[in-house]
Structure formats: structure tokens, C-alpha cells
Amino acid sequence: MHGAGTAAERAATVEDFRHNLASVQERIAAACKSVGRDPSSVRLLPVSKTVDEARLRLAYEAGCRQLGENKVQEAAHKAEALADLPGLRWSVIGHLQTNKAKVVARFADEFQALDRLRVAEVLDRRLQAEGRGLDVLVQVNTSGEASKFGLPPEEVEAFVRQLPAFSSLRVRGLMTLAAFSADPDRVRPCFVRLRELRDRLRQDAPDGVAMDELSMGMSGDFELAITEGATTVRVGQAIFGPRATPDSHYWPG
Ligand SMILES: *Cc1c(COP(=O)(O)O)cnc(C)c1O
User: Fold this and answer.
1) Candidate from 45, 47, 110 with most ligand 1 atoms within 8 A of CB, to mutate
2) Banded model confidence at residue 147, pLDDT cuts 50, 70, 90
3) I need a labelling partner for 171 at 20 to 30 A (CA). Which of 35, 120, 121, 165 fits?
4) Does ligand 1 lie within 6 Å of residue 47's CB atom?
5) Helices 72-81 and 53-61 sit at what angle, rounded to 10 degrees?
6) Where does the Alanine racemase N-terminal domain start and stop, copy by copy (predicted)?
7) What is the Cα–Cα distance from 206 to 74, expressed in whole angstroms?
């Protein structure tokens, strides 16, 4: 399920991007239909890591208004280079070190990988200074793989209870990376775990904390994620084409 086999051809024109985006949207709609969900309940977040500025301009022209990036410096650099494109929003979806939090506070609209209070604290302080707010998702390690970032599921509730102290952070829900496997019987339980956790937390979420979002599913497994309740799918290679950088660059194991 993972890897180049699920990637589209390398998109190099606006037409390519229109085509790939439409085909991913069709797959989203089909997955929704199979479980009686409304396709508008799923947000497609195109993931643009390793894609250069020139191709991102084409993706923008094809309709992308939000881009996900794993690495903060790469994201900040692109945000600056593309600042002339109206309405383009940036989502940081990778692990964040505290010393980079100030960069995120400056340009990002969303951060999907919150898993430490220290990061929440530094982010909040920098956001206050910038007069900005930030949508955040709490990252959960649902696969038990040591190479994955995120909190163990059993620690999430206590963690979330601390978050109202950070008033610049708008908590929206949870994010996970499933096990990297071609076997749906290994992947699906990760998605189920995240949904069940979200449902449980939603019952008595602290004031100001929303527990609606479930960010789960990538090029290789987004349809499965949708059937298990994903509200955001993070899709790179099925839109942009295969990446040369191995996944171990993003999830060192
Ligand atoms: C790269 C990445 C994705 C997208 O992966 P693809 O295989 O390109 O669809 C999703 N989530 C995170 C956190 C990523 O770093």
C-alpha cells in the first residue's frame, strides 16, 4: 500500500495537477459513498514536501489552497517564496523541535503533530507575541512502532486536559500515521484506535477544545482511513508523483 506503487505520474503541468486532484477527489467520493458519508466531510490536504516552488505554483493554479509540509524549514522557505499567492495556507504535519516553534508561529495556519507540552508552551508564547492563533491536532502513535512520533493513546486524555492553558492554540482533534504495511488488517486497527479515542475524548472535552478532526490516511491508505472516519487525508504522491526521498528521512527508525 505504501511507496511508489500508489503514486501518480510526476505532475509537471497545471493539467496534470487538475487531473491528479480530480482523480484523488473521485477516490475520496467513492470511499465516502461505500460507507454512506458525505464527501464534503473529508478535507484533502495535499502534501508538498520535496516539491519545488515552480511546481507548487502549478498546483496552486490547479486549485490547491492549502499545503502540508513535514519539515519546518522547508515549509517556511516555501511560504516565503509563495507569499504572493493569495489565500494559500500552510499546514505543518511533521515533528517539531522547540527551537523551531517560533518559525511555525510566524507562518503556519495549522500544526498537526503536537505531542509535547513543552512545544505547546513555546508555540503559545510565540503566537501571543505574533498576535496569531494556530489550529492544532494532537499526534497519536497508534501503531506502537518506535519510529513514529506521537503520544501513546493512553496518555492523550491527560495531555489534552492541559491544552486550554495555551489560549493561542485552537485544538481541533487528532492525527496519526498508521502502520506502514500493505496489509489492511494491520493498517485498519490504527485508524479504528484513533477514531475510538476521539469519540471517547469528545464526551468530556475541556472547554475550548474541539475533538472533531481525525487526520489519518496518506496516498497508500486514504480510502481505508475514510471508511474508518477520517475527516482529513494527507496526500502527497498521488497528487505530485513519486518522491525521491525515502520515508525514513521523515520517520527515522
Ligand atoms: C509525506 C507525508 C504524508 C503523505 O505521504 P504520501 O505517501 O506522499 O501520500 C502524510 N503525512 C505525513 C505526516 C507525511 O510526512
Assistant:
1) 47
2) confident
3) 35
4) yes
5) 60
6) 22-242
7) 34
Contacts of 19 (CB under 8 A, 6+ apart): 11
The pLDDT confidence band at residue 120, using thresholds 50, 70 and 90, is: very high
Q: How far is the CA of 250 from the centre of ligand 1 (A)?
A: 9
> Given ligand 1 and candidates 23, 70, 114, which is best to mutate, with the most ligand atoms within 8 Å of its CB?
70
Q: Identify the structural domains of the chain with CATH numbers, from first to last.
A: 14-242 (3.20.20.10)
Distances 217 to 150, 222, 236, 243 between C-alpha atoms, Å: 15, 4, 11, 17
- The residues that bridge with 47 in the sheet, in sequence order, are 68
